[in-house]
């Protein structure tokens, strides 16, 4: 299984690191930086075209430099849209040659993407996918995994996406599954892309730094449906309140899936433990019992039945899936378990919102009488969720260790104070703050014993800490291995 950086340069890009000879450099005025400041570097790396928005003023020095390098300037109305369309054009519009599925919502997207890819492969399809946890291209003979892209953006920039899709076409891939973030719509990363089918998983408070109002966040998430091809399929979670709103409007012929609510694709959890689960899936197309492993809880069953439902809508015989689900491999950083030498169980999970905490901690609470939680909150992200995460963790766990999780440019002490502010007085004795995440994990291990469960929440598959703009290597798996030596 080769692991590599798939791309080092792009013919069209907004980042100078990917500029090469004759590249088109698109100048984007971002939230933190203005791309105009990098025009000189782009020219030095070989850019032959500079794309700027109408009204952008270039200094006489920059204009002279552009002339000196023999480059020319193009003016566009929207630089982000231009980046997407020019990237698609440079790649030969590969999205039009593939069958694409898009997974949108707040929680469960990564697991659903992995499940869809797995099921498609069991039907003999050549599949690629892009998710928060993994970027994978499987030709049926081998698999390429791009770890350089993993953990940066849920939906990468369009320069990456269209070159990835071009590579898929070249490798004979038929299906590509994309995890779709709200930012992909806000920043026009999906222009020139249409989906054969989409799944809406749910909507929960997230990215308050960009969408301070839930209605605004919901509005961005709904844009997923504008990218569905005529005759495409839409699956919506009927257990989610926002999913119910979408189903009531249902102007796009959506089908529903659910566990607690009657739906077109209905699932019932029959057996549930950490190692094996069994569920009944019912629909007008087929009814069957399936067994799977390592995906406990109703929320994981929702992800599975959503994926099954979408394939059924696209004509796949879902009654044949019962035997294939058992072979579904673990998703990196999603309830990833490791038995420790002292008899405790460590669980690495990407949960980083209050409702995700409620789900995973409620799932693990009945399975131990000593639940330890280690977590932090990302800097430069939604501030309002931090105190709620503190409240949930301290209510459900026996020990809470608040630590750092990509503080970025924020003061870690301020972040931890905001988390702890949500802890009720009667739960305060459970909580400690250890900013060094390695030491926090070591402390959790020292406090644990046989039967304890240590939940490491927030980072999932990520192997970096982002501090003051610097990406520092940090692996929770490696820390766990080292403290047991």
Walkthrough of the structure:
It is a single chain. With 485 residues, the protein is an alpha/beta fold. The chain folds into 3 domains: 3-77, MurE/MurF, N-terminal domain (Udp-n-acetylmuramoylalanyl-d-glutamate--2,6- Diaminopimelate Ligase, Chain: A, domain 1, 3-Layer(aba) Sandwich), CATH 3.40.1390.10; 93-327, UDP-N-acetylmuramoyl-L-alanine:D-glutamate ligase, CATH 3.40.1190; 336-483, Mur ligase, C-terminal domain (Protein-Tyrosine Phosphatase, Chain A), CATH 3.90.190. 30% of the residues lie in helices and 24% in strands. It contains 14 helices and 24 strands. It has a 12-stranded mixed beta sheet with strand order 1-9-8-7-10-6-11-12-13-14-15-16, with helices on both faces. Strands 17-18-22-19-20-21 form a 6-stranded mixed beta sheet, with helices on both faces. Strands 2-3-4-5 form a 4-stranded parallel beta sheet. Strand 14 and strand 15 (277-282) form a beta hairpin. The longest helix has 16 residues, at 298-313. The protein is globular. The relative contact order is 0.09. The mean pLDDT is 90.
Question: What is the CATH top level name of the largest domain?
Answer: Alpha Beta
CATH superfamily of the largest domain: Mur-like, catalytic domain
Average pLDDT confidence is: 90
How far apart, in Å, are the first and last alpha carbons?
Answer: 28 Å
CATH topology of the largest domain: UDP-N-acetylmuramoyl-L-alanine:D-glutamate ligase
The global form is: globular
Number of domains: 3
* Radius of gyration, in angstroms, nearest whole number: 23 Å
Spans of at least 5 consecutive residues whose pLDDT stays below 50 are none
Please provide the count of β strands.
24
Instruction: Please tell me the CATH architecture of the largest domain by its name.
Output: 3-Layer(aba) Sandwich
> What is the helix tally?
14
Strand content: 15-25%
Widest β-sheet, arrangement of strands: 1-9-8-7-10-6-11-12-13-14-15-16
As a percent range, the share of helical residues equals: 25-40%
